[in-house]
Amino acid sequence: MLLLSPATMPYDWGSPTAIPDFLGLTADGSPVAEAWFGAHPVAPSLVTGIVDDTDATDHAAVIVEGTHRHLGEVIAADPVRMLGEDVAERFGSGLPFLLKVVAPARPLSLQVHPSAEQAALGFVREERSGKPIDAPDRTYRDANHKPEMLLALTEFEALSGFRTARRALQVLAGLDVPLVTKAVERVRHGSSAEGMRSALEYLLLGARDRDHDVDAVVALLRQRLAAGESPSEHSDRVALALAEAFPGDRGVVASLLLNPVTLKPGEVMFVPAGCVHAYVSGFGVEAMASSDNVVRAGLTPKHVDARALMGIVDVRPAPPMRVAPERVDDGIEMYYAPVEDFELAVIETDGAPVHLGHPGPRILLVLDGSLEVSTPDERVLLERGRAVFITAGEDVVLGGSGRAVGVSVP
């Protein structure tokens, strides 16, 4: 087992306290938006030690080496041993998944993640353009897709996917300003998907002389909420939260085309490629393919490319994809994604040992309590916010009392 220290990301939408508190760090007032546990080259985890208790005589494991190397470097040095022959054959020498802790204190961007084919084409195109990989106006940081699954640890607010045209028209009714009335005309044109595409494109890219209409829409949302006349209080309140964070941004109006979703603690949502979404607030854990490709259309100070988003967005109306757990054993609930890169497990124990088996490489992160992680040759006691990378083929047992999340390869 390898002890991991995450890379933290200081994006301005992050909470200054949630992740430092979770990791046991001292908050300094700066935002900490994400903590990455994985091997993505943008922000790889640091291996801070190797666990070995072969010679231990008591309950404590021995840290025999503090490598302070990036996890990706350690895996690449011996990918078959670290990942297993099957995973190395399918995915090469890189870890195919990434585990993140996310803490939005204010809304994230309106965004879409590309498919594998779209990511490969976009990455090659930007590489050929000569843009540095870390350029602020770069969209594709790698050639991989980025499907993701979010496990809410607190109540979590988000937007995900398009409403039906009928429901969108109900929500937009009464917002009689030109930016919206023109969008309504487009929603009514053609099939539901065609209408939504046309409306979204107009709201994001059309009639640039109507930007001031966003403030008028916000005023009307406030009025109908105060009067108790809103057709969707949830949508209106989310739109007002977006307007407070990003005044005048057209993404505020575009959000009314989308499904608002509230996840309760323990609930899980899957976001496939092409699904337009935005996280609004909360604290949670994400499991995803190892990628940092995000195509943004608004609600952010970062690089926006609404035209590129229109080229890859899936406009078919669909409800948020909530994922139900499958109880596979005592103390283990699995959340399966319709992709080959990752699966998510929530493991809970209160004294009785829980056997995880050995499906392949795994990152295990303790959410609360104190857990002993054991393999036939290793043991380590992990507190909240601590994580280990477990190599392929290791038979893992959890003891103690607490809860952990594990990400592995199906």
TrEMBL record:
Ranges where the Phosphomannose isomerase type I catalytic domain occurs: 3-163
Coiled coil spans: none
EC number: 5.3.1.8
Catalytic activity annotation: D-mannose 6-phosphate = D-fructose 6-phosphate
Gene3D superfamilies referenced in this protein's UniProt entry, alphabetically: Jelly Rolls, Phosphomannose Isomerase, domain 2
Record keywords, A-Z: Isomerase, Metal-binding, Zinc
Record text on cofactor binding: Binds 1 zinc ion per subunit.
GO CC annotations on file: cytosol
InterPro entries cross-referenced by the UniProt entry: Man6P_Isoase-1, Mannose-6-P_Isomerase, Pmannose_isomerase-type1_CS, PMI_typeI_cat, RmlC-like_jellyroll, RmlC_Cupin_sf
GO biological process terms, semicolon-separated: carbohydrate metabolic process; GDP-mannose biosynthetic process
Entry's Gene Ontology molecular function annotations: mannose-6-phosphate isomerase activity; zinc ion binding
Residue numbers binding Zn(2+): Q111, H113, E148, H277
EC class: isomerase
Classification via Pfam families: PMI_typeI_cat
Catalytic residues (positions): R296
Stated family: Belongs to the mannose-6-phosphate isomerase type 1 family.
The protein, known as: mannose-6-phosphate isomerase
Organism of derivation: Salana multivorans
Organism phylogeny: Bacteria, Bacillati, Actinomycetota, Actinomycetes, Micrococcales
